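Ticket #4471: complex job returned nothing on first submit. Input attached below:
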Amino acid sequence: MKIAVCVKRAPDSEARIKVGADKKSIDEGGVKFALNPYDEYGVEEALKLKEAAGDGEVVVVSVGPDAAQETIRTALAMGADRGVLLKTDAVGPDPLPVAKALAAELKDGGYDLILFGKLAIDDYNHAVGVMVAELLELPCASAVTVLELADGKGRAEREVEGGVEVLEFGLPAVVTADKGLNEPRYPALRGIMLAKKKPLEVKDVTLDAGGVEVVELVPPPERQEGRIVGEGADAVPALVDALRTEAKVL
Amino acid sequence: MANVLAVLEQRDGALKRVSHEVLTAARGLADAMGGEVHALLIGPAGTATDGIAEHGADKVLVAADDALALYQPDLYAAAAAEQAGAASAVLVAATAMGKDLAPRIAARLGATLATDVTGVSYDGAVVVIRPVYAGKAVYTLKLTGSP
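Support reply: We reran it on our side without changes. The output follows.
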C-alpha cells in the first residue's frame, strides 16, 4: 500500500500571531512553526494503515519554504518513509495553485491513498485536499472521523450538522482528516534519530500567481467589555430587555 | 453579465436557514456588480422552493431528483459547476456540505476560492473578509480571479 500524506508548515496553534509591518502578512519573528495539527491525523492514519497492511510506503509531501523540511522531518520522525518538498517561498492565499503543484507531483506516483489534514490552521481554507482530488479526478472524502479500507474500497464517516454522513468510494482516493480520526503518536527519540537519515527530496516549483490579492491583514476587532445588569431573579427583566433591544438575539 | 450563483442547501426537502444568509449576501453582491442572483437548489423530488425569491433570488434553478436527496459530492459539484459557468461569483454556505462542495466547484472552473467568509463586497473585484489563524487575525482579500 503506497500512501501519500500532504502536510503544511503552519504556526504552532499556541503561537501569538502579530500582524507584520506590511499589514498583509504575519510577523514571523518569534513565531514557532510546526506540523499543521490536522496533518498529524493524516500522518498517523497513513502509518496505521501501513502497519495494518504489513508493508507499503508512506511519502510525505509539502509545498512551502526551505524551512518546511523541518516539518517533513517531524512526519518522518513519526514513522513516514520519505519526504518531498516542493520548494517555493511564495505560497499565496489562493488554494488552487498549491493544489495544482501537489496534483502534478502526485499524479504518476502510483498512490493507493492520498491523505490530507482537513484544513491548515493558518489560512483555514479547507480546500487544497478536495481540489487535488478534483484535479486528479479521484474520489474524495473530506473531514472524515472514521476511515476503513478493504478490498480496494474505502468507507468514511464525516460529521455534518446534526448527523453523520457515510461515504463509500473506490481506491485510489483522497481523504482529508478531521480531529477524532485517531490519536497522533509523538515522535520517539529513536524516530527522530532515524528521520535524519531518511530521504528528503527538494524540488523547486513555481506556483501560478493565483487570483487572490491580499488587501490587508489586521488583528481581530477588540471585544467589547461585558456588562453586568444585576444579580439574582430581580435582574431577569433587565437582562431580557438588554438581550432584546441591544443584542437583538431574542 | 455579472450574475451571482447562490448554491442553497436543503435537508429532507426543506430549505436550510443558512441558505437565507447565502441569498442575502448574494443579493448584496449582485446589486453591487449590477447583476442578478440565480439560486440553485439541489434536492429530492418535490423540494420546496418557498422563500427563495423572497430572500433575494431573481431566478430559481432546481435540480430535483430522489437520487439527490443526500449530498452526493460528484453530482452536486457537476450541477453547480454547470450553472456556475454563467456566473461571475458563486456563493456557498460554509457548512459541512459547503466546505466540501466549494473547492470542488472552484477546481472544476479553475476559479479562485475564499472560504469561511464573514463579509463580501465589490470594488472592481469581489472583496471578502475572512478570519484566519484561528481568529487571531482577519484577512481582507480581493479576488482578482473573479468576475
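Chain A has a mean pLDDT of 91. Closing as resolved unless it happens again.
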